[in-house]
Amino acid sequence: MITIRSVEFLNNPARFLDPYRFKVTFDCVAPLKDDLEWKLIFVSSPGRTDLDQELDDCLVGPVPVGINSFEFQGAPPDTRTIPPNDVLGVAALILTGSYNDQEFVRIGYYQNTEYDNPEMKENPPASIVFDRLTRELNDKPRVTRFHIKWDGGPTALPAQPAPAPIANGTNVAATSVAVPSADAL
Amino acid sequence: MRFTKPAWVQHQNEDKKRTTICSVHVHPDCSRVATGGLDTKVRIWATKPILKPEAEAEGRPPKLLCTLGTHVGPVMAVRWTNNGRWLASGSDDSLVMIWDLDPNGGGKVWGSDEVNVEGWKALKRLPGHSSDVVDLAWHPKDRYLASVGLDNMVFIWCGVTLERLHRLEGHQGFVKGVCWDPVGEYLATQSDDRTVKVWRTTDWSEVRTISKPFVDSPGSTWFRRLSWSPDGAHITASNAMNAGAVFIATVISRDSWQSDISLVGHENTVEAACYNPHIFLRETDKPVQTNNICSVVALGAGDGSVSVWQTKNPRPLVVGKEAFTHPILDLSWSSDGLTLYAVSFDGTMAVFDFDREELEGIAPTSAQEGYLKKFGFSTPELPATGPLVHYTAPAANTSQVVNQLVARKGGKKRAQLNGSIPSAATNGRPVTPTPAVNGTMAPAHDPFSSAPLLMPGSAAPDMRFPSPSPMGRFGASMDVEERERKRRRTDSDGPSSSAFGGVARTLGGDRPRPVVAPGAKREVSVPQPPAATLPLPKLQTVLSISEPGVGELEALHPEDSSKPAELAFMTGAARQVHWMDYLPSPALGLAISKEFVAAGMVDGGVNVYSLTGRRLMPTLQLAAPCSWIAASGSYLLVLTCTGMLYLWNIVEQKSAFAPHSIMPVLANYPGTTVVDALVRDNGVAVVNLTSGVSLSYDAALQVWTRVAEPWWSAGSAALDRLRGPVSELERYTAASGVEAKGGRGEGKWWSAAMTLGHLETRIHAARALDSQLEWKGAMMAYARRIADEGLMNKADELAHELCGPIYWRPGAEKDKEWEPMVVGLEKRQVLTEVLGVFASSQALAKMAADWQELLKRLTA
Predict the structure, then answer these.
(1) Which residue from B34, B31, B114 is spatially nearest to B75, judged by alpha carbons?
(2) How far, in Å, CA of B798 to CA of B819, rounded?
(3) Which parts pass through the membrane (chain B) (predicted)?
(4) Residue B571: how many CA atoms within 13 Å on its side-chain side?
(5) Do B439 and A67 touch (CB under 8 A)?
(6) CB within 8 Å: A56 and B423
(7) 385-424 of B, contacting A, C-beta below 8 A
(8) Would you say A56 and B423 are in contact if contact means Cβ atoms under 8 Å apart?
């Protein structure tokens, strides 16, 4: 139903405390009754899901058929919730897409966090100085798609199925282009 | 004929390993071929690099043109429209997708390393099936698309608007194959309910249900793909059985719907049949008329071989015997009729590329068009007035138009109270697509005036290799057919005196066996006992079973029921009778091993004979006739139709365990029955269920154990198997096509837990079945996985188990507490190898070193 075409970072790399700014472009093959919900989750400590932070969540809709895009901004993580040992180095950022409370896609990025100068990189201060941190998201997402129920599933057929009337030139078939031979590619 | 197997045509699982290709279809212009994989992807490949080594070397056109990853379940069928504009795909995710060329598409695929040379985009998603879609077929003029699946349904979709038009109900089981009559008058579907149904396309009523050739056909195949001949005269249906468990494809005649022709020879079920799209002439100088027409049909089977038949010959033109290591799942002929593509469970594609001279009598496409006119059938015209109300697709050429949407702040509670930085894009504006680029608008310009037009087929003629290679690679004969003929010949010769020259007088040894042609085997009706709950085998006029190196046991049931049933034991190719006996009641099942033979009778009696024909024990009287009887080594297994399982050691004349009923266990799997019951040399009984579960009765635990089940398929990565009894069961489970119940888990532990669980089960199963090779293989894979995951506790416990008590010394008296051997291997020797694996893991290196040290001291 929904196929992600791209997710662009509008600020990457960025300061650790900057908001995350994304542009998501996706295909939709049939109109959707309800909105799509997108969530941004920050994973600081892989073993402790209770420390995962939901940074932001937004609704997009109604979604027309075709290619759609939207921009999305999420707050940076709450520094108080991150265990000090887990601030530097690799963390994960997850963007999820849901429809009617069913997650249909989960996109994970690795985030690398480090100090913005060589001195502090070499000798990190005992307590973390958050406004000297930078983050960079790896642009290789890990994408997991899920099979969900979109609008109400199969609808009952009419008892006496009436053939859909078709005007010449406006049917689906007529919008397709001819397919050239692949030998010439 | 040239045979090619392009190694680079593959679908890959998560570990980047080659995985099953379920479907293949060549584009009508012959220049590209689509495949559907177990990896949920559809791939489109250029055919030129497959067929021409020069193009392959040059890399032009690119080999892989496009990967489509929208499905979330294995792609079971891919089919191009006859005009070549669209591709339809059907998947386990219950969807049919229609793909359309996007001239502006292509490029790097987001979220993967793949680059699409050619852009194909989802034009429409066709929801409707409530379970897996298994096969698809476009109407010969693309007027309709038919889809079939595991919801037992057949759906008919409009080929123009892609609206759903009809749902055809009637099949009582999974529908696994569909094809159209080239005339357009009928549609045929084939199902696990062991029928082929023919539907009339004018009112979608059921014309005929054909069940006779499929009565014994196993329900364990992936597919039952069938095909209609290009002259409209025949349907060739897959997965049929002749009496006596011979796997065949059956040829059904149009209008009479009788099936008198069998294509015999495959050693396992036929998964797919596919007619060459061209009409063939028997005599090329004679006109195109019914008595001068024949056709060419290809079969792909579970035995991994492909056969190509020309209907004027009783033997196949070509047999590709070792083309694949696993079942063939789909076949496709190019529209020029010269190239056959086949794909397999083993994840490979093979191509048979014929020269025109090798396909004698091939007629041009126009011959078919002209010939089909004689049927006088025309497909109903499309209703051509009024607006298209249901669907407005974005035109292909507008794909660069992007609707800008606005994100609104979600209504849900925030997980964290870190609201000091507000989201910039959360100002609550209503979301409206930018009107000027609304996706429902008409295309900006006429696609036909701007797109380059290259007609389908223009590339076809130059696709042949210059150098012909000999046909010799495959024998042009089919084994069983051959054997059958030899046998008949021997029979009709009668026993010659020389054949008996050196043989002492035996009971019945001078008696010629009556000649029974395979076609003459008939079923004899048996009253089903009222208590029967498992299916009883059909009683047949001839029943026979053979064991290589031992002989053949045959039961004959005269049609005149006043005459007694005869049992005979024969050896050698000449089928010399060694002994015979008469039975008080007809035999339902026979069993043979190197030690003895047995016959299970309709009256519940079981006779057990030595190989010289002496009764080894009195006739055993069971409470009910046997549904299954099997022998191996000294063991005889019987599963009665009331579900009682008996197992005897015939040599020791003892029961292996008290008779035990399978019915209470079967009640846990509603709608399930037994498909097979067998016994191993070591006396382990295994019962396979239709749900894909294999059960073994463990006499020590006095309980049924699951030795293979579909559950592991949902998450286990341990799918590589060695050859052996456990893998046979697992292959059976996979072939049952039953999906794991309980859904798929997620998270990082899912795969690890499932894989370890699977391997643990496999280790137990291999021990139960006494399969040393598989036990060792599973144990080492298990150790490797534990090492990869760094699971200290499991590693330590496994080491303890294999080491046993430290006071034990080799040669010590047999300890009641500990058994130093398993499946013929020394546990401590295995431990040494396991520790070697652990030592390579960072997490376990220390532990492994400690154990190695200990083991060294113990053996010193």
Answers:
(1) B34
(2) 15
(3) none
(4) 14
(5) yes
(6) yes
(7) 385-412, 414-424
(8) yes
Q: pTM higher than 0.80 for the full model?
A: no
Mutate to test the interface with A, among B44, B58, B75, B110 (most CBs of A within 10 A): B110
- Predicted complex ipTM: 0.75
Helices and strands in chain A: count of H runs, count of E runs: 1, 10
Q: Tens digits of per-residue pLDDT, B740-779?
A: 655 666 666 788 888 888 889 889 888 888 888 889 989 9
Q: How far apart are CA B127 and CA B121, in angstroms?
A: 17
The residue type of B825 is L
Task: Report how far residue B790's alpha carbon sits from residue B317's, in angstroms, rounded to the nearest whole number.
Answer: 56
H helices then E strands: how many in chain B?
12, 57
Helix/strand/coil (H/E/C) assignment for every residue in B70-134: CCCCCEEEEEECCCCCEEEEEECCCCEEEEEECCCCCEECCCCCCEECCCEEEEEEECCCCCCEE
Cβ-based contacts of B424 with chain A (< 8 Å): 19, 21, 73
Residues B263-299 pLDDT 10s: 988 989 999 999 999 999 999 888 888 889 999 999 9
Bigger pLDDT: B399 vs A69: A69
State which amino acid sits at residue B215: V
Question: Between the ranges A139-148, B394-403, B500-509, where is the mean pLDDT highest?
Answer: A139-148
Summarize chain B as % helix, strand, coil (round to 5).
Answer: 20, 30, 50
What single DSSP character describes residue B333? E
Q: Per CATH, is A2-168 categorized as 2.60.40.1490? A: yes
A161 to chain B: which residues are within 8 Å by CB?
165-166
Residues in chain B: 860
End-to-end, the C-alpha distance of chain A in Å comes to 30
3-class SS of residue A32: coil
Task: Say what the alpha-carbon torsion angle B186, B192, B195, B200 is, to the nearest 10 degrees.
Answer: -20
* Cα radius of gyration rounded to whole Å, chain B: 31
Nearest CA to B669 out of B643, B630, B702 is that of: B643
Which residue segments constitute the domains of chain B, with CATH numbers given? 2-375 (2.130.10.10), 504-649 (2.130.10.10)
The enclosing H or E element of B250 equals: strand B246-253
Q: Which of B122, B173, B101 shows the shortest CA–CA distance to B671?
A: B173
Query: So where are chain A's domains?
Result: 2-168
Is the Cβ–Cβ distance between A168 and B384 less than 8 Å?
Answer: yes
What separation in angstroms does the CA of B598 have from each of B28, B674, B790?
A: 56, 21, 52
Residue type, B404: Q
